[in-house]
Design a protein that fits this description.
single chain; 229 residues; mainly alpha; 8 helices
Length: 229
């Protein structure tokens, strides 16, 4: 079997669901236990080393020789993040009452991870928007999206990778909010993932999607802080 086929069938395709399974284990099955926290760390390590090991094993190069348009990448990423930030402000100003009844759901889950303290919540938030955002862009855009493009066209690859990117967020959100809110927030997650794929494809740079992801996650952390504390 060619290395490209091995990479696609044994690394990329399983990678579409493994994150969901690991998230389900740490966020649902073992939530509130030490093993849940350990599974969270394991999931983060998986996102880094699963792509790295398969790229080393198969010697597949996911980069291309086109010029990296970092300036355009950052510009597109910031413009999209600004749109999401403005949407977040609108939701907070005018639809806060829709989310407020579910504050206890969020707080109870934060307690299970010892994040019900404002300082620890902010500290974890910094990890989420600085480091976790980079790890997710590396995994979902560089590894999954570009890996799918070995066999599929750009749009289909972006759609599939964005759906998979959304699934574990949907599962997390289902612990907080009812179906209608979960569906709305999941759609926004899918939309963001799809746009980040396109920015990455058009500019050949992950920097813009990462910067955009940082800004979006900051908005989410601030919204979560105001909701909880």
């Amino acid at each position: 079997m060619k290395n490209e086929n091995r990479f696609f069938y044994f690394a990329v395709l399983p990678g579409l669901i493994l994150t969901f399974l690991l998230t389900y284990l740490y966020f649902v099955v073992f939530s509130g236990y030490f093993l849940g926290k350990a599974m969270f760390v394991l999931k983060s390590l998986y996102l880094i080393f699963w792509p790295y090991l398969w790229i080393k094993i198969t010697k597949i190069g996911l980069g291309n020789k086109e010029e990296r348009k970092i300036g355009k990448s950052v510009l597109y990423g910031c413009l999209f993040a600004l749109f999401i930030a403005l949407l977040g402000i609108v939701l907070y100003k005018f639809l806060y009452f829709v989310f407020e009844p579910f504050k206890n759901n969020v707080m109870n889950k934060m307690k299970s991870f010892d994040l019900n303290n404002p300082f620890l919540f902010v500290l974890f938030g910094v990890y989420i928007f600085l480091l976790n955002s980079l790890i997710e862009e590396y995994y979902w855009r560089y590894f999954i999206f570009k890996g799918l493009m070995l066999k599929l066209n750009t749009v289909i690859s972006a759609l599939i990778s964005s759906i998979a990117f959304t699934l574990h967020h949907t599962m997390i959100l289902s612990n907080y909010f009812p179906l209608h809110l979960n569906a709305f927030l999941s759609f926004l997650t899918f939309f963001a993932g799809f746009v980040w794929c396109l920015i990455f494809y058009r500019t050949n740079s992950i920097i813009g999607p990462w910067v955009s992801h940082i800004i979006v996650d900051i908005v989410i952390v601030v919204f979560g802080y105001k909701l909880l504390f």
